[in-house]
Amino acid sequence: MRHLLLAGAALLALSGAASAADISYEQPLPVAPAAPAGFDWNGFYAGVHGGFGWGSGTKDADFLDSLSGGLFGAQVGYNFQANPWLVGFETDIAYSGLSDTAGPASIDLNWIGSTTGRIGFTYDKWLFYGKGGVAYGDLEATQAGLGSDSKWAVGWTAGAGVEYGFTKNLTGRLEYDYVDLGNKTVFEGTPAQSDVGVTTNAVKAGLNYKF
Fold first, then answer.
1. What is the mean pLDDT of the chain?
2. Is the whole model's pTM more than 0.90, yes or no?
3. Alpha-carbon distances of 114 from 73, 74, 77, 162, rounded to whole Å
4. CB count, 10 Å around CB of 54?
5. Does residue 35 carry a pLDDT above 80?
6. Beta strand 62-82 with 194-210: parallel, antiparallel or unpaired?
7. Would the pLDDT of 13 be above 70?
8. 194: exposed, middle or buried (C-beta count within 10 Å: 0-12, 13-18, 19+)?
9. Which stretch is the leader sequence (predicted)?
């Protein structure tokens, strides 16, 4: 009888140990928290920008070397992100106050815009990019006694900038652009006929809303 009791006690002890092992085994392991997702730059965006430009204008042999003024405009674009790289395109247009006067002649850059490709490097909420493409602008030449003559000029632009994501939809940027609009002939068929052109540097700050 004593042997039977000891055997039963041993069986109960083994059964309890096995159950405890099963309970310990079935408990799920703690799951590490997921790493935070990086900022998503993909998609369409639109925004506004403002800044200051300076450069030079030409009117035949007369050199206008202090072209300067403010600008304010808007832009739309699209980004495609393949971490950590980004490619995209953008179109912008701005009202410009850049102008200069030399004696009886003056040059005004009334509007300036561009259509460019962008390539950049992303680091979480930061985007560092370069851009280049076609630039266009409304050049207006004024000559005493003849009035003014306005022409749209087409040239090229290149620039670079940095952009930061404040929220998942709102980003801010700081950008530098160089623009060369080439030359256009104004006052054709008059004694004042001449070629005018503008090159500018511009520093711009902007905000974008990403859809």
1. 84
2. no
3. 11, 11, 12, 18
4. 14
5. no
6. unpaired
7. no
8. buried
9. 1-20
Give the H/E segment covering residue 198: strand 194-210
Q: Quote the CA–CA distance of 175 and 183 in Å, as a whole number.
A: 25
Residues 6+ apart with CB under 8 A from 211: 43, 44, 45, 46, 169
- Look up the CATH number of domain 43-210: 2.40.160.20
* The residue type at 187: F
**Distance of alpha carbon 175 from the chain centroid:** 8
* Per-residue pLDDT tens over the stretch 128-184: 999 999 999 998 888 888 888 889 999 999 999 999 999 999 999 999 999 999 888
Boundaries of every domain in the chain: 43-210
Q: Which residues contact 84 (CB under 8 A, 6 or more apart)?
A: 121, 122, 123
CA–CA gap between residue 1 and residue 93 (Å, rounded): 102
